[in-house]
Amino acid sequence: MAIKTLLPGRSPRGAPNRGAPTRTAKTTSGRDRAERKLAFRMTAPSLVIMALVAAVPIGYAIWLSLNQYSVRTAGLSRFVGLENYINALASHEWWTAFGQTFLFAGLSVSLELILGTAMALLLNLAFKGRAVLRTVVLLPYAIITVVSAITWQTMFQPKMGLVTNVLSTLGLPGGDVVWLGEHGYAMAVIVMADVWKTTPFAALIILAGLQVISAETYEAAELDGASKWQTFVNITLPLLRPAIVLAAIFRTMDALRVFDLPFVLTRGANGTESMSMLAYTQLRENRLVGEGSALSILTFLTVMVVSVIYVRFAGGNIRDVAKEEQ
Amino acid sequence: MDLNRPALPLQNKATNRKALAATAIAAALLLSACGGGASPQGAEQAAAADPASGANASGAVNICGVKDASGIYKGTAEAFTKANGKVTAKYTEIGATTDEARTQIVQRLEGKSTECDLFLTDVIWTSEFASQGWLLDQTKLVEANKDRLIPSTVETTKYQDKYWASPFFTNAGLIYYQKDKVAKPESWQQLYAEAAKAPGNGYVYQGKQYEGLTVNFLEMLYSAGGEVLNDQGDVKIDSKETRDVLNFMSDGLKNGSADRAVLTYNEDPARLAYESGDFGYQRNWPHVYRLLNATPLASSFGVAPLPAWEGGKASGVLGGWNLAISAHSTNQAGAVAFIDFATTPDWQKHVAMDYSQAPVNEAAYSDPAVLQKMPFATELLASVKGAKPRPISPVYPQISQAIYKNVYAVLSGTTSTEDAVKKMAEEITTAKASF
User: Fold this and answer.
1) Nearest C-alpha in B relative to A160
2) Which residues of A fall within a CB distance of 8 Å from B6?
3) Which residue of A271, A288, B94, B166 pairs with B104 in a disulfide if CB–CB is 3.0 to 4.6 A?
4) Per-residue pLDDT tens for A152-167?
5) Closest residue by Cα to residue A300 from A276, A273, A271, A325
6) Tell me, what's the ipTM?
7) Chain B partners of A296 at a C-beta cutoff of 8 Å?
8) For B6, which residue in chain A has the nearest alpha carbon?
9) How many CA atoms lie within 13 A of A69 on its CB side?
10) pLDDT tens sequence across A34-46
């Protein structure tokens, strides 16, 4: 890419053109070529570093996953090809963890997006103390997950926990439920803990999207006599879609790799074992490096496939929205 | 961060999708690239620790292990340095929790690190570490010290007819009971029946899905005469005893003998629940004694060894910590000198008096000074002497998982006893085959 094209051009409306540069001169002069070479040489080191950082550990993990290490053979490994993968995919544990992780991701991400949008809309309003509130809502996200998981565990402790105490004091149902020891409830608590912690993150991204929608658009809508709801559905939401999709991608990827919440809260009991926990157990506790690596790679592939689907489909929307905007 | 400015280039039209895709994929790559574990080193023939070498020792000894909560490790190292004169010992904390310490120790041993001469090892790690050639053979040392050590504690250091560590302090489960509400338990059946009599009599134990549940289950299984592996290492868990114990435990949760909340309890939550005064019995470790004494229950609780299964004899499961010499230690003589000191009858008294841990020397339990600080020493000794090690196997972690996952499934009501027993046996067999 020529250095020239990196410089912002001017859009017809006078705003900086953030899109594709206008290509007036199509001829590639010798200078252009030289510049291109220079640019490549300048970016090469970072490309190499990126490749090493990303590819080496993954390549190594893939290699490990094609071998079998037993505790007996210690350092000696045996090449087994795809055997570890076949065993994992044939196991009941993997599919249970797979299903449960998706259930967790589906529930938590949708709640986070709905609540995050609501929160962003609220924070976007002009009111006194807005700056303070914006900082405050971010607090849960600033707390280390393990710590917040322990807090949630304490809150939902049977008999002494805050939640159980409040429920039974108010005479509401649930005061005598062993939240983390019951199928279904345990997952609900884990989802709640995740929503509590990461909704601010979703809200932050959506808020950023909200703030770049120009006031003129709203003024025009008002002039046309659109109701608040119509404005929200027809203007805000479509223009927010890229931000929401981005939040969804980040959150889904995180949710599919979930480890600390179920690890602290239930140790995977009551149908809350995630894919990452399964890999951890094999790798760390059982020192079955091949099996554990295969599970890690499977988790990684799952996350990757989901991301690609998102970018392929939801990402298309981003382009459409961008086009419409033009 | 200034929230009034758009933080992300969301409207960058042409590059938007590419950037999004690149970010997403790069992030996925980076975040998920956690696959590579440590690669195990080849097992090698380790040398043997000679008891005589300790006498001529000099230099420095580094002992590594879990965070020193009670001060016992640092205290012992200081006392040793003072008493010995020629060798200095220091304690290095390499992990906040038992799990973390194990990971750190394994990494050092696999990497042939010479940083640590001695490792504090949980009793269940011995066979795995020994099978990897990571530890110095302590058979000679243990044979020389055997007469002053409680036999059950020595058993925890055994793997394939050799001793790979020396016991430092031990641990066994105890029953704490409210003397004003319930009777001292003689059998599990009596304890459960008594616990079901009134709402405030209930029993709390460690029923969360983790190692602690394996221990709680094995304590009952062993006293009922059942076993996981026999002396030849064959899987023997598919038995009438296993079924009886599982049914007994799950019935106990149904009829209110044990509180359903135990399904979420490890040691501390169980202790806290008991301290609320709403229960009659608690199964926990000896350290709880000191903590209970600082509560309103101080005057009303009693301590008992684990009860027997009706018609059988009591038999618990041994916990505790051993001292293992690294095969890569550069000061093996110093390490031997330290072990000699740590296991002397005199220092073992301090283990009890100063740090409330269970000594590995039998005489310590009847010492008047110890009895004054640890009035339940007699009960504790009974528990320790009657206790058996957990299944001895280099793949113990997998065996324990097979036990606690399936026991939990029965207790939480998601699996029948019959299915759980079959699965347990099957998973333990598979685990053994992976070695």
Assistant:
1) B273
2) 208-209, 211-212
3) B94
4) 998 998 877 888 888 8
5) A276
6) 0.79
7) 32, 34-35
8) A208
9) 28
10) 888 998 899 999 9
